[in-house]
Amino acid sequence: MLIQISLRSPNGQSRVQIEDDATLRELVNLIKAKTELSNFSLKYGYPLRSLDISPSLQDASIKDLKLRGETVVVAPVDTTPPVPALQPASAEPKPKPFTPKGIEPDETSLEWPERGGYIAFGGAIGLENPATTLRNQVAEYILNHPNEYNKAILGEEPQRYTTRMRQMDTWGGAIELSILSDIYNLEISSIDVKSLRVDRFGEGKANRVVILYSGIHYDRIAFCMDLSYPVEVDVSRWATDDDQVLEKAHQLAQRLQSLHYYTDTTDFVIKCEVCNWIGQGTRDAAKHERETGHSQFGEMQITD
Fold first, then answer.
1. Nearest to 33, CA basis, from 12, 16, 10, 21
2. Do residues 225 and 116 make contact, with C-beta atoms less than 8 angstroms apart?
3. In what order do the strands lie in the sheet with 49-51?
4. Domain named OTU1 Ubl: which ranges (predicted)?
5. For the chain, how far is it from start to end, CA to CA, in angstroms?
6. Which of 29, 142, 231, 240 gets the most CB atoms within 10 Å of its CB?
7. Tens digit of pLDDT for each residue in 203-235?
8. Which of 18, 24, 19 is nearest to 60 (CA)?
């Protein structure tokens, strides 16, 4: 009987089929061909656990592993000799990956040794043009539920509200998160970095995603085996009874709070990127946008 196994590797997501009475060696060779990797480790299940693929065990049947429908994470293993500590004087330094507000990468992640990886910003949404797609989905949902999302709830006529929401420079909030929770049948747990408050949208659903709110931006939280792997192999969906994930994300929020990785939108100093106007808070920004049509703003850092 054929079984299907999903693979997540640095090359992206894929799927393989194999007879359930095949050997582990046959599965390993199939994964090598599919991912074009020659040396790797395998993890599967939830929480992730290692699959022993030692040569001495590869004659065993995969039937007892119960891999049907599982997602197997394929993590490359580097077998090249270590680079000498001293580099030639002409060697260019390796560029650091971009992280928000200049915070170092190790400060926007937390090691999670119990699960063999890290909790960090990441996770692929799996949509083409995700920002536009999500905005359109929210707008259509509002227009299709006029009794639930009326002028009293939205603060303005639904047609006007949805027109604004489709624009890339409009910020979403609790209404949008609640709607996305319904659309994707997921609990969305949002942790406010400044207050460390946890808001849950769609409680009672089987699975959840976790996001951190920094006052303006929402950053998706994921589990990654290695920070150098692409986001396609991150795990960003968990069972809602997995409280350890929420606790770990809360710890990450505490670290970011200590680094002032948030914007207080009530009194932060804001600058218009179009005309260099300077104001304070979102109310001033909204007034300036109404008066000028300018909608590109940035926070100004005030130093002593």
1. 16
2. yes
3. 12-19, 2-9, 71-76, 40-44, 49-51
4. 7-51
5. 70
6. 142
7. 999 999 999 998 767 888 998 887 777 777 788
8. 24
